[in-house]
What we know:
Elements: E1 2-7, H1 11-19, E2 28-34, H2 37-47, E3 51-55, H3 63-73, E4 78-83, H4 88-92, E5 101-104, H5 109-150, H6 159-165, E6 174-181, H7 191-206, E7 211-216, E8 219-224, H8 230-245, E9 250-255, H9 265-277, H10 279-282, H11 290-302, H12 307-320, H13 323-339, H14 344-365, H15 373-381, H16 389-407, H17 415-426, H18 433-440, H19 444-455, H20 459-476, H21 481-487, H22 493-504, H23 508-517
Parallel strand pairs: 1-2, 1-3, 3-4, 4-5
Antiparallel strand pairs: 6-8, 6-9, 7-8
Amino acid sequence: MIKVLIVDDEPKQRxxxxxxxDWPSYGFTVMDTAANGNEAxxxxxxxxxxxxxxxxxxxxxxxxxxAGQLRALDERLHMLILSGYADFDYAKKAMAHRVDGYLMxxxxxxxxxxxxxxxxxxxxxxxxxxRWQRATSExxxxxxxxxxxxxxxxxxxxxxxxxxxxxLLWSSYQVLLLTLLPKEExxxxxxxxxxxxxxxxxxxxxxxxxxxxxSNQAKIGVLLKEPILSVEKDEVYRELQRELQRWDIxxxxxxxxxVHTLGEIAESYGAARSLSRKHFFIGNxxxxxxxxxxxxxxxxxxxxxxxxxxxEQLYYALEVGNKETMLQLLRQTGQSLIAQxxxxxxxxxxxxxxxxxxxxxxxxxxxxxxxxSEEYADYIAEIYxxxxxxxxxxxxxxxxxxxxxxxxxxxxxxxxxMMLDLIHRNFSDNLKxxxxxxxxxxxxxxxxxxxxxxxxxxxxxxxxxVRIENxxxxxxxxxxxxxxxxKVGYTNVDYFHTxxxxxxxxxxxxxxKTASHA
Length: 518
């Protein structure tokens, strides 16, 4: 609708003109009326009408003076002048202010409609031309930005001239890049979400003159005139997050470094793209920047803990119900794998293998888990759908907590009782006091002393005795000596012979023969 302001010092004339025709049916809406020129100027600044209909004779500021002041404010404003028969010659002077026409009082309905029809046609043409000009300008600007981003501009000497014409000649530049992340691999992104994101970016940056939105190689971004300050990063990220939550879509947002020339924009863009590819590793609810990448590299370099050791300790932490250590071991496993240079797919696969192995071991030790084995297997597969390593830790942690709760062992036993239970359940594993000390958050020497005080045996002695007792049972069943050695946790058969003779007083083979004749 085209907004209209009616100005006349006579109330009956104002209201009569408002009621003389059905304005909306011709594409117009009367926003307000004014009783004089000064009031009209004030209301113009508030409602910004596109058509003003004003009486030529008013006290104070007359219609011609009003027309002159309005024209100074708005070159494109449309105006109609109302005049009596005696003011006809005077009204012609209004043409100097480029009014669209004048109407004799009392206003003829058909004459008014004729003027309105012509004015609407002109406004529609102007709006269409403006849209086309804006679209052309935006297309030209975005095309130019793409050449800068991709470093494909050939005429370097003409860059500044073209940038100036497009309003892009600035003292500094920075690239903000966004990537929408699908829930499933290969899933197409919601077109409405992409358009919504572009609108949001335009509101955040274009309307305030801080930059221009672009799309390039399936990514959406902003070429920033002023860099995003450190104190702004969290606020910018949260605003983007609020918008995209409406479509339940995750995203990556990365910042290239601040640069000072048109030719360096490609470097800022390249750095932002590189960061976006590392979203899985450093994405954690914040704008990705070079500082986060350095922090990741430092954390990986500082963490020398072996992934296999973490795997070994993880199940024990699960069994004894030590949630804090369990979650810490998950993070250490991830850091160790990152330090090895694994990519996103490889890291996810290793975590799936870790959880599957842990579940398998749990099912052997605790049949009560069997009722949820299918549910657990489906949940483990969800690891492949998360978009950050933090998400992997959270998924894995939640899964292990579920297992821990169902086992019902969390925190109900004293340390030594837990250790005894672990030994009897896992005697075939490479159990070490050093491994368990990390689970119980004790110094290994202290834990060994505690174990000795309660059981009367050293940890390794007790473990050997449990292994030998189980070895005797297997030998009695007719299993071969080397098979028994491996089955109870001895990788070296000779060492097994030594231990067996120490605790039984004869060799494994002799014991087997005696048992077979008994």
